[in-house]
Every structure is written in C-alpha cells, then in structure tokens.
C-alpha cells in the first residue's frame, strides 16, 4: 500500500511542473485572484518587458481595498481613484476578467472566490494578499504572494516554491454555545503565538473543525497568516461538496460527481504524518477579545487585561507595556468593562451572510449605544443583496447601524472608513496592528456576535449571557 | 534587480519583535501605482507626529543613524500583510540588508525578489550587534558569497540562506526570464492536465 499522505503533499505533487536538486519546485497555479493594490506594479513589469498574461482564463480581478462603502461610485481620494482606474486599464489591456465597481459580483476577493465557486478543492490559488489562506477552507492550497510573484504568476502561471513543512492543528471536542469559529482561531493564536505557523502549511483537523460550516471554516483558515502560516487548509468533505454544488464556476451534473470523487481522494490519509502537531480543546474556548497590537494578544471575555510584570522575559514585558500604552488600557482590569467608540462588522474574516445573520440576531429589536458608531459592511454585493432579501439590513438600520456597500473598508481603512486616533473599535476583522484601522486607532478583534453585543452595550460583554434566549 | 554580493554599512538597531508590514509602511501609502518613492513613508507612524514633524523619541530620526543601510530587528520581522511596498520602502530608504532572528515567510520572499538580503542570526548574536549599534556608530560587513557577517573588531558569524535565493541575489537575475526557460514543461503540464 502507498505511503499515507496529507492533503498538502497530495496537492503539491499534483502541481509540480519542474523539479531540480537544490532548487525550490516550480509549482503550477490554478487560480490567480487580483486586486487593485498589489497589482499595478506587476502589470507595469509585464509591459516593460513586453510580456503577456499567460492564462487570462485562470486570472480573476476585482476591486475591494479602496472601494468607498457610502457612495461607491464617488471615490474622493484621487490616488485611490487612480489605482482603481489603473486596474481597469490593465485588465482591459491584458484581457483579464474584472468584477469592477459596477459589476454585480464585486466584493472582497476572498469572499467572491468561494461564492462564485472559483475556489475548489485541490486547486493552487494565489493572490497578492496575505488573507488568501481563506480559500484553504475548501481543501485548496491557497497563499498570499508579493507583487513580484504576482507578476511572475501573470507571466508564467507558476511560482518557485520550497515544499513547506506540514503542521496539524487538531481541534478536539466541541465549541460551546455562543462560541464561534472566530473565537476558536483567536484562541489558537493566543495559545500558540503569532509565529508558530511560520514555515508551515497548517491543516486544521478534529471534530470541532468537521462540525464547522463552510463559512466558519473560511473564518478559521483566513487567520492562518496571523499565526505565521502562509496557508491553512481543511480536507474537503460533504460540507464542502454541498456548498459548491450549483455554484457558478463549479462543475455541473456528471462532471460535478466526477469532481467530488477526485476531491474525496485529496483528503489526508489515515496515518499520514505531519512535521508537527498541536492540539487544543474546543470545549475550553470562551468568546475572545484582543487587548493588544497583534492577534496573539488575546484573552477570554471573562479575563483581565495582562500585567506586564507577569511576563517572563524583559522583552515580553516591554512588548506588553508598549501595547497597553498604545491601546490606552490599564493592566489588571476586566476587558469586559472597556468601552468602545466604534463597531465594525465586515472584512474577509467575517462579512459573509451567516456572519451578518448571527450579528443581526443579537441586535434585533435593540438599539446601538448612543456613544457608539456602528457599521456593517457586507463582503460582497451578492452577500449584500442576499442579506437585504432577508431583511437583515432593516434589522441593523432600525438598531442604529449603518448599512454599507461591499469592500474591505474599516479592516484596513484604505477608503474613507477610518477609526480616528485614540478611539476604540470592536472589529470582526483580522489584524489589530498599530494604526491598522487609522493612525492611532485602537482595534479589538472579536466575533460578529461579540461585536454586535458591544455595539448595543457600549462595552465588551459575554455574548453567551447576553444571548441566552437566542441560543436556547 | 541589482545583484548583491557584499555590503558594508552602518547598522540601525530596532530591537522589537513582531514588526509588522503595517508599521513598515502604513496602508495610506499603498495607493501609488509605482515601485519607487516609498522610502519617505517608511515606519511613518513611528517616525512622524500627526503634524508631520519628526518624532525625537524614535531612534531612526537620530543623527547617528543617518545613512544606515543595515537594519537589525527582533523576531518575526515583516509579519502580516503581503504588501511588497514594505521591502520597497526599506530599500528606497537605503536599507540593503535586514538582520533578524526570524522573518515572516512572505516578507522574506519579497526581500529576495528585490535584491534586499535578509540575514537570520541567533538572538544572542543580535543582542551583541544591537548593543554595539546603540552605543556607537557601528559598521558591519555582510558577505553573501561567504555567507558571513563581521565587523572590524573581531565579531564574525555565519548565516544560512536557501541556495536558490542566494543564487538569485548574487546574480540579480530576472526570475521570470529564468522560469520561461522551462516554457515547454509548463505547456506540457497544461496539456496533460486540461
């Protein structure tokens, strides 16, 4: 019998175009997603060297980072506008499909790939964006690349890649009621740190992972990069296939059944070995809130803000001190008492229909605290229309949330959606780095449910108590 | 890209762990469509106040580090976003070598595509370098051919780098041109798989 293999090794072997001693492998790329921020210099590089896009049919572009969410057709910042126009010109010149601001498929690149069925098990998927790991939820090998690599993929449809090490993140047990996929991935990063995945591709395994929906799996894989791993994936199963059936770019009819057979064979074999394994008990995970300036600076809602002196090394103490200072927080105080000024529900981590549904359940019939400005930014135009068809927009608006157009928005504040200096935001996004949501802005990463509850209360709150009746 | 074989230059120590690419180049400067001109925005929120004045409490603004070309930092340098604007900003500012105990994967790759040499040294070695560079104008030589780092006072150490990246940096090759020598294999792969 053949040696048991992980899905990572299987996908890798299926994509090696060329192998040579002492060199990385030349890997074929099945799908290249493109957006306006990391592509202009790559297209310019092609032009300067008289090169073409090798496979426009495997390249798919959209605009998301700069897109205004109030009046999407009016881009105030001339530099943003130029970047968006440049993408349009480049896509026309190089014959690449573009879901631009006028296109019904427009949205955050990591939301629309899956919803259109472009993202499929076994594919190699790249994009000039570190959250490309999101697509790993389908059992694809998906990772972020820089602009030089974007140019390389445009020109050759390949990349030179050293075979990564494999890391099994095994999630045992079951998540408790009111504890979400976002809490799980935050708890994983809090436990193992922001660099435990460096040099690895993560496979998430275990019962708790199997029980997640596709959208929840995307939330988990999305934040693999925050653990240092360029890619994080989940072996495909019936949940994956059910999600993909009927999607626009997924195979149809008999072709779909044939594809499922191939996809099933990709799943990691019993007994396959990983280079490393870590385990976590899902039943111990509580709703999480980050308190600091990287995603591992994260505690359960019941906990108090860390005290620098409790850290072991001087450099850890310094890091905590600096983070507390930036965040304007007092060590030793309960995180639940911290008031928020802004709430952002959106981003490639948590802006899908199920995220909006869950947040809407929390706010239904309630009012946003008068001290809080709260916005909901759907991940795509498709998500927005689907949410409106269910009346979610009405629930949010009646509660006092602003209901916006699709884009990356306040996750990184490249458009006008900026958190002012010194103000505090409960955000469903993925990065709480200094200045991420605006210069001097203070970001706390949470689940959509926790963000919604914070909007109502004006401070963080354990959503499990808050919503006992919703979950019962 | 420009080949890099050996570099001799002034060291700037920024002894923090987990310096992310949002700090190296904040998002408001990612809107330009050129590769050049990002140096002025390097570490912008650390270097400048809201009114654009240089912050005295940020060490890179000190005279003694003017002209520094070797950046020495803590673990996990370049974590976060894949933005290649980060190495572009470092390079445009004048940094040619970055020394850290560890780098984020995407950032490391991005450096080697732009002729910036990322050097991994141990925490102890970095501590030694940081101490010297904080105390005085400290010059280091980094030799990629020999894979060595040394000063003129007896400090010397070696570093590892994957052979492929070493070759690309030493020669300053256009990677796409190299890949296109495998054109037939790419086509054969596409025919087989379609």
From TrEMBL, chain A:
All copies of domain Aconitase/3-isopropylmalate dehydratase large subunit alpha/beta/alpha, residue ranges: 9-458
Annotated SUPFAM superfamilies: Aconitase iron-sulfur domain
UniProt pathway: Amino-acid biosynthesis; L-leucine biosynthesis; L-leucine from 3-methyl-2-oxobutanoate: step 2/4
Keywords annotated in UniProt: 4Fe-4S, Amino-acid biosynthesis, Branched-chain amino acid biosynthesis, Iron, Iron-sulfur, Leucine biosynthesis, Lyase, Metal-binding
Gene3D superfamilies tied to this protein: Aconitase, domain 3
Annotated catalysed reactions: (2R,3S)-3-isopropylmalate = (2S)-2-isopropylmalate; citrate = D-threo-isocitrate
Named cofactor requirement(s): [4Fe-4S] cluster
UniProt KW DNA repair keyword: no
Keyword NADP: no
Full protein name: 3-isopropylmalate dehydratase large subunit
Annotated organism of origin: Evansella caseinilytica
Species lineage: Bacteria, Bacillati, Bacillota, Bacilli, Bacillales
TrEMBL record, chain B:
Subunit structure: Heterodimer of LeuC and LeuD.
Domain of life: Bacteria
InterPro entries per record: 3-IsopropMal_deHydase_ssu (IPR004431), Aconitase/3IPM_dehydase_swvl (IPR015928), AconitaseA/IPMdHydase_ssu_swvl (IPR000573), IPMI_Swivel (IPR033940), LeuD (IPR050075)
Xref: CDD domains: IPMI_Swivel
GO cellular component: 3-isopropylmalate dehydratase complex
EC primary class: lyase
Function: Catalyzes the isomerization between 2-isopropylmalate and 3-isopropylmalate, via the formation of 2-isopropylmaleate.
Any GO BP: L-leucine biosynthetic process
Gene name tied to this protein: leuD
Database matches in Pfam families: Aconitase_C
Pathway info: Amino-acid biosynthesis; L-leucine biosynthesis; L-leucine from 3-methyl-2-oxobutanoate: step 2/4
Name used for this protein in its record: 3-isopropylmalate dehydratase small subunit
GO terms of molecular function: 3-isopropylmalate dehydratase activity
EC number: 4.2.1.33
Keyword annotations of the record: Amino-acid biosynthesis, Branched-chain amino acid biosynthesis, Leucine biosynthesis, Lyase
Catalytically driven reaction(s): (2R,3S)-3-isopropylmalate = (2S)-2-isopropylmalate
Organism listed in the record: Evansella caseinilytica
């Amino acid at each position: 019998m053949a040696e048991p293999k992980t899905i990572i090794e299987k996908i890798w072997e299926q994509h090696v175009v060329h192998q040579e001693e002492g060199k990385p492998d030349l890997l074929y790329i099945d799908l290249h997603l493109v957006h306006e921020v990391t592509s202009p210099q790559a297209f310019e590089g092609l032009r300067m060297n008289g090169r073409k896009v090798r496979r426009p049919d495997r390249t798919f572009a959209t605009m998301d980072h700069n897109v205004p969410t109030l009046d999407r057709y009016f881009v105030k910042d001339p530099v943003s506008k130029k970047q968006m126009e440049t993408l349009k010109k480049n896509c026309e010149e190089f014959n690449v499909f573009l879901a631009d601001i006028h296109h019904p498929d427009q949205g955050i690149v990591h939301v629309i790939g899956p919803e259109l069925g472009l993202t499929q098990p076994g594919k190699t998927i790249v994009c000039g964006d570190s959250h490309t790991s999101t697509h790993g939820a389908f059992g694809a090998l998906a990772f972020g690349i820089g602009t030089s690599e974007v140019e390389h993929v445009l020109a050759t449809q390949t990349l030179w890649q050293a075979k990564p090490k494999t890391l099994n993140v095994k999630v045992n047990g079951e998540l408790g009621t009111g504890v979400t996929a976002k809490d799980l991935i935050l708890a994983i990063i809090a436990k193992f740190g922001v660099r435990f995945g460096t040099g690895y591709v993560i496979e998430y395994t275990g019962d708790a992972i199997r029980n997640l929906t596709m959208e929840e799996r995307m939330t988990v894989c999305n934040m693999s990069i925050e653990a240092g791993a360029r890619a994080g994936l989940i072996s495909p199963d019936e949940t994956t296939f059910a999600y993909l059936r009927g999607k626009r770019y997924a195979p149809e009819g008999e072709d779909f059944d044939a594809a499922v057979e191939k996809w099933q064979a990709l799943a990691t074999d019993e007994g396959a070995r990983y280079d490393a394994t870590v385990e976590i008990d899902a039943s111990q995970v509580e709703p999480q809130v980050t308190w600091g300036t990287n995603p591992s600076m994260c505690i359960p809602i019941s906990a108090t803000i860390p005290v620098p002196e409790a850290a072991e090394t001087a450099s850890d103490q310094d890091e905590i001190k600096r983070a507390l200072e930036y965040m304007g927080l007092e060590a030793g105080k309960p995180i639940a008492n911290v008031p928020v000024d802004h709430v952002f529900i959106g981003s490639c981590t948590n802006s899908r229909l199920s995220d909006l549904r869950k947040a809407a359940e929390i706010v239904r019939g309630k009012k946003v605290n008068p001290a809080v400005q709260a916005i909901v930014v759907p991940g795509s135009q498709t998500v927005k229309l689907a949410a409106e068809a269910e009346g979610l927009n009405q629930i949010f608006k009646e509660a006092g949330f602003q209901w916006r157009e699709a884009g990356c928005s306040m996750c990184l504040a490249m458009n006008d959606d900026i958190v002012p200096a010194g103000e505090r935001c409960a955000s469903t996004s993925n990065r709480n780095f200094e200045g991420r949501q605006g210069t001097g802005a203070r970001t706390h990463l949470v689940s959509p449910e926790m963000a919604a509850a914070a909007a109502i209360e004006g401070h963080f709150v354990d959503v499990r108590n808050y919503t006992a009746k919703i979950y019962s | 890209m420009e080949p890099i074989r050996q570099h001799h230059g002034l060291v700037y120590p920024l002894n923090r762990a987990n310096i992310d690419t949002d700090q190296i180049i904040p998002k408001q400067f990612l809107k330009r469509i050129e590769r050049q001109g990002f140096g002025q925005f390097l570490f912008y929120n650390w270097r400048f106040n809201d009114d654009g004045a240089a912050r005295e409490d940020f060490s890179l603004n000190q005279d003694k580090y003017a002209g520094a070309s070797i950046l020495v930092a803590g673990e996990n340098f370049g974590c976060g976003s894949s933005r290649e604007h980060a190495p572009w900003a470092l390079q445009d500012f004048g940094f040619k070598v970055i020394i850290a105990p560890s780098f984020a994967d995407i950032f490391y790759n991005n450096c080697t595509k732009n002729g910036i040499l990322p050097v991994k040294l141990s925490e102890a070695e970095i501590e030694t370098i940081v101490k010297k560079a904080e105390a005085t104008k400290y010059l280091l030589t980094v030799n990629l051919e020999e894979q060595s780092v040394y000063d003129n006072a007896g400090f010397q150490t070696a570093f590892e780098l994957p052979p492929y990246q070493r070759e690309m940096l030493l020669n300053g090759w256009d990677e796409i041109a190299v890949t296109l020598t495998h054109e037939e294999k790419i086509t054969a792969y596409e025919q087989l798989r379609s």
